[in-house]
Amino acid sequence: MTGRIDMATAGKDAGGAPEPTTSQSDNAAREIVTFCRVCHACCGIVATVEGDRIVKVRGDSEHALSRGYTCPKGRAVPFFHHRPDRLDDPLMRADGVLEVASWPDCLDDVAARLSAIRSAHGTDAIGMYQGSGAAFDDLGSRIGARLMRRLGSASFYTSLTVDTPNKHLVPELMAGIHTLNPIIDWQRCSLTILVGVNPLVSHGQTSAFPDPVSRLRSLAAQGELWVIDPRRTESAGLATRHMAARPGTDWMVFAWLVREILADGADRAYLDAHTVGVADLAEAVGCFDLETTAARTGVDTSMLEDLLASVRRHGRFAIQTGTGVSMAASANVCEWLVWALQVITQSFDRPGGSWFNPGYFSRLHERTPPTSDGAGDPGPKSRPELAARWGQFPVSAMIDEIESGNLHALLVVGGNPIIAVPETGRFVKALERLEVLVVSDVVHTSTTQLASHVFPATDFAERPNMPIGIDQFLPAVVAQYGRAIVTPKHRRKPTWWPFAQIAQRMGVEALPHGFDADSATDDALLANLATRGPIDFDELRAERTAVVTDEAVFGWVERSVLPDGRWDLAPRPLVEQLGLREDPAPFALIPRRQQRHFNSQLASSMGDDRPTDVPLLLISPDDARSRGFVDGAQVVVHSASGSVECRLSIDRGILPGTVSLPHGFDDNNVSYLTSSSVNVDPLTGMVLQSGLDVTIVPAGT
Ligand SMILES: Nc1nc2c(c(=O)[nH]1)N[C@H]1C(S)=C(S)[C@@H](COP(=O)(O)OP(=O)(O)OC[C@H]3O[C@@H](n4cnc5c(=O)[nH]c(N)nc54)[C@H](O)[C@@H]3O)O[C@H]1N2
Ligand SMILES: Nc1nc2c(c(=O)[nH]1)N[C@H]1C(S)=C(S)[C@@H](COP(=O)(O)OP(=O)(O)OC[C@H]3O[C@@H](n4cnc5c(=O)[nH]c(N)nc54)[C@H](O)[C@@H]3O)O[C@H]1N2
Ligand code: SF4
Ligand SMILES: [Mo]
After folding, report:
1. Which of 27, 390, 462, 591 would be a feasible disulfide site paired with 488, CB 3.0-4.6 Å?
2. Domains defined for the chain, CATH in brackets
3. CB-defined site of ligand 2, < 6 Å
4. Considering only CA atoms, which of 701, 696, 678 is closest in space to residue 688?
5. What are the helix and strand counts (H, E) for the chain?
6. Integer angstrom CA distances of residue 65 from 179, 360, 479
7. From ligand 2's centre to the CA of 473, what distance in Å?
8. What is the pLDDT of residues 32-58, one digit of tens each?
9. 0.85 exceeded by pTM
10. How many angstroms separate the alpha carbon of residue 433 from the centre of ligand 2?
């Protein structure tokens, strides 16, 4: 189905980077229609611009997916764009101080230093870390990554390995391809189960929920909406049922459900024709009976039975997982069992369950994607026990790689690793040892403070983009050209530009064939990428906003992706991990997102007079009482790796034995508590960030 949106008047002429606004008439307010790129929801927005100032952002009611919705972060774009700590000029460290430099001097210096490092230590001594800022800047992330590939460096890291490696590993092992992302069949799904994901605040983890309140309400109205979370979240408030399983035990709920459905309810003919490993799966989950599952998860038997009854009644259903699953020690096993349940009930790839977004640009449904067995490639030298996967090393190896002298230069693209990477204390010392630390960002961050070179990037308001790398995350097959709202100011350059320039200086080519670093433009590079999609770039650019080409696409995974058309229900590495599962921590720290900041972005201010998010440690009334804590007490949380001080908030909605602290803050940085070596997942290198064993003491003791 094609739901093309009519051209409208607002923003019709505002394609690409607008011309500088200097004349009197340009100072009249005008509206630019584009989409927000703070998060993966890609909400349609209408920005009001006066002269060169963005004065307001509101939701675009004509946007097919967000339908007028915006969140506070999207509406804070005027503040973010004009904030005083924006980076305006390239910076270079001289005598220990970051000083303004010219682009040519800065780029020449970086290229010369990287060349010297390459000659002395080899190309793997030059590393790159891409964070979430890169995920929403397709040209920056692609051309940055291409620089690394062309240099021949294996030292490529992204926030994927502190976030969701289980969501690549499980499809790879079960379907032979790592890029399968299940999307709820929004129109038809009558039972939805959210596990460790809070879309009302986060807008989903890998599957985007633009306009989440309406979406969750519709899902509940269509039948049942279950939330499994140790905390009664904002999303749980809209659910028909909330199950508070102990952190890190969800996988047992799914092991039990799989066991019951295999025993009674699975279509044997389908399993025989479309799966392998059913007997091994049955054996792996065989010991999870109702009583065992209830005892270990802390969930009443009656609630477990209700969930099983719902699964049987609806037949097909959709399950979405989030960081509550992917950051736990059981990340891979839980995701596997969640997928196995959906496979054996034929909920995947069929109406009423989940479909897999092939991506408007990725177009996986129209080609036979290359398959892989999930074995991984050799990992970093200092951590040979970890594998490289999907062209990257796990972030948990980065500290050791620097300390052991393997990594001499790090290029940070749209990330704030000091906040995001584990063991902050040790990591900061490691970063200080680097010969070159280039940071490309739009604002000053704690990581730019340590940089040898800082590249000021155009923010999303200053550049066009299309959601290319995240097209499989969207709730429909959709293309949209997001035009720039204003012209770049000062000496800001698109994120890709300095990396293309460095490549040129180092004798490699980071731009696609036929492009030159001095003359290429954002639009020309996007046009080149747009050839992958069915709609001509100029046509797309002329569209007022998003173009939905398909609401959902079913059947393509079974038809053209699965080896012999069969899911592997019992991949050996996952069966082995299940056998090793230990009981979770007795007093467990879990993560959560907050509405008014995005990781470290906007954590300190949103520029309005409303209070900013505060990193409150949520604790249950029982746990507070037994430890003698009152609401608002200042406490110190200790883990095996470090400690962090924060304020405590008594919360009736959190399960006893569990405390919740958000990340993203310079002070109270929760990454002091995480470790790059203890409890690191042996298959993916994922850092344990949910279910950490902690103790809490009053501050000052
Ligand atoms: N302990 C603990 N650690 C965690 C987490 C947790 O829950 N607990 N969460 C993890 C998760 S889910 C993630 S994704 C990572 C996040 O890790 P990072 O991605 O490293 O952290 P962010 O704070 O999102 O950094 C994004 C940066 O990109 C910049 N930026 C924004 N737009 C642009 C642009 O257009 N160009 C450029 N060049 N830069 C731009 C922003 O200013 C910001 O500094 O952290 C992880 N770390
Ligand atoms: N406003 C805002 N939105 C964001 C971000 C942000 O910082 N702010 N960050 C973005 C990023 S990078 C990401 S990756 C996504 C993440 O998106 P989500 O995964 O939805 O992140 P959270 O909102 O933290 O929800 C995770 C939930 O898991 C629960 N949980 C913790 N441990 C367990 C467990 O063991 N089992 C179960 N069942 N639940 C558990 C927590 O209580 C929490 O409610 O959000 C994105 N969106
Ligand atoms: S949910 Fe908020 S931050 Fe994300 S795209 Fe929409 S408006 Fe922007
Ligand atoms: Mo993330």
Report:
1. 462
2. 84-155+393-457+492-518 (3.40.50.740), 180-361+560-580 (3.40.228.10), 588-698 (2.40.40.20)
3. 39, 132, 163, 195-199, 201-203, 205, 228-231, 233, 245, 247-248, 250, 322-324, 328, 590-595, 597-599, 660, 664, 690-691
4. 678
5. 24, 27
6. 22, 15, 11
7. 16
8. 999 999 999 999 999 999 999 999 999
9. yes
10. 33
